[in-house]
Design a protein that fits this description.
- The chain is mostly helical.
- It has one domain.
- It is built from 6 helices and no strands.
- Helix 2 runs parallel beside helix 6.
- It is globular and about 60 Å long.
Length: 150
């Protein structure tokens, strides 16, 4: 099995498992990873799923691994930025919420407050949606590129 196939398989399994657990609301997500019960397993399964998503596109699209044109290099660069953003999701979330369970309150302070919660949700949605949107743009670009070559 090639490195690409293995990477794709691992990314697909991690993303699929993470998505399944989140969609079903599995009680496994609430298991604590520490004695103090403040680090839920769901935080890490979500994080791994967020990292696996852009890697699915990376391992699926050869043009993103080995860009030939200037446009392909731009798409590949943007995908690498999105991978870095996904890796940084936990540290960013911790800085915003002040805890590993990503809970927020009505307090006036920034960390753990309502503004931080809005930024957290924007960051979370963006981290998931951006690789999908990037792949869609790449697909549309590929269609127009093929038509213009005919």
């Amino acid at each position: 099995m090639s490195k690409r196939s293995l990477g794709l398989l691992v990314s697909l399994i991690i993303f699929g498992l993470s998505l399944y657990l989140l969609v079903t609301g599995s009680s496994i997500l609430l298991l604590s990873l520490s004695d103090s019960s403040n680090i839920p397993l769901g935080t890490f399964t979500t994080w791994l799923g967020m990292i696996a998503l852009p890697f699915l596109f990376y391992f699926t699209m050869n043009r993103l691994r080995e860009p030939e044109s200037k446009t392909d290099r731009v798409f590949a660069f943007l995908l690498k930025i999105l991978i870095i953003l996904a890796v940084l999701w936990i540290p960013i979330s911790y800085l915003l919420s002040g805890n590993m369970s990503n809970t927020f309150t009505e307090k006036a302070e920034f960390q753990g407050g309502q503004l931080a919660m809005k930024i957290f949700w924007f960051n979370s949605y963006f981290t998931v949606a951006a690789p999908i949107v990037l792949a869609m743009f790449l697909g549309v670009y590929s269609l127009f590129r093929k038509r213009s070559k005919k």
